[in-house]
Amino acid sequence: MISFGMPTQNENSTGTRGLLAPPSRVKPLSAIAALLVALAAGTTVPAYGQSESAAPGSAEKAPDAATNTDANAAPEAAAAAPTGFWERSNLLGDMGGLRTLLGDHGVTFNAQETSEVYGNFSGGISKGASYNGATQFGLSVDTDKAFGLKGGTFFVDALQIHGHGITAARLNALQAVSGVEAEATTRLWELWYQQALGDKFDVKIGQQSLDQEFIISQYGSTFANATFGWPVLAATDLPAGGPAYPLSSLGVRLRFKPSDSMTILGGIFDGNPAPGNGDPQQLNASGTQFNLHNGVMIIGEVQYAINQPPASGSGASQPAGLPGTYKLGFLYNNNYFADQHLDTNGISLASPASNGVPAAHRGNFSVYAVADQMVWRPSADSPQSVGVFTRVMGAPGDRNLLDFNINAGIVLKAPFKGRDSDSVGLAVSYANVSSSASALDRDIATLQTPGHPVRSAETVIEATYQYQVAPWWLLQGELQYIVHPGGGIPNPNNGGARIGNEAVAGLRTVVTF
Fold this sequence. Notes:
The protein is mostly beta strands.
């Protein structure tokens, strides 16, 4: 994003989709007619997969919105897809042959609804329950099957977000309880075209949400808290929270696979998905601001996978070792970022002598590492397994509220006999407030408001159970405990004392139509 001004960092946007179908050549008019019928039939039954990378051609399928995408919300269909009500992958099945017809034309339409209720029972700025949800509509076109352009995929999806998330209403935490939480609206999310150039390279161009391919932890995506999807450090430090659910930015993403085990991702995007002062989601409420004049964000990631299962139908045997994926990455944004402590004269912003204008720093960056590793399973063909993950991310402290964030957790798949698609997990996330932001708080306590709390860090602990009622229906129970919400900020309803630690319980339901 090329910016000659000094925009203020917007608040966190707080924050995963379609399947390709079989080919056939049809006359253009019949394909268009089939598409219109599909849209008419599907608009009454939409859906959203929080944090799940469901877009065709994504680097990996990873569940929990924002994601955050829900890990087991929609298991992949087998070669011979079951048609029974409780066995099929979609609630509406083949819709009287419509999905098959569209698939023959290279068109896939999908819809998913995520609804959730959370209640705060301790601490926070208020106690009580809140409801929120999101409906996601997605449309993908395999251009080879549609009109003979090999290796191409067109994708578009939209969100209908409803309700009011509990984090903003009752908690004031940095790490939102759910990756689905967002401002209620109907908006475009992604709109892009991807072209494969041989077997090892592809390019994607258009409006993209980076949480669909970058900084993803497969096991972390099992959890509902937004930080296990798009990490809180990026969501807090980047302008408008970065191009992640429910926002996106115009740009180009390149992907190169030099070997079966290695993938290299890189992209350049507009640096601010919602420029201006105020709530980013309200500044770009429709998702149709296609900006290319707000600076530049560059991101790169190297992925290395070990002991991955063979491709379906390849005839290769299952590796004896346990699968894992390891990633290293960086991001850079060339906008101006406000100093968290000092003004343009080098005086504390809390001082009466300050001019009140924060010093400006050109550019911001972060480096990160992600590890997903299965550590146990009874046998190579067993559905039961234990996996662990960790993700570490750092950024400079002078221009960022958060300078360090680490997530870690453990997930048990198939925890009980006969529950092969269920998952149970425990995870923790620690977000450290930068020394510059803490120094400003100390100055406020000394020079302005005696006893003003000094922010230090926020920690979230989450326990979750995903119950797969049917391939198209997921229930997820949640318990979260948030220590030092906001890093230890004052409670506006309690005379400036810190917001108390929060205990939150919730239930999520995800239906794929």
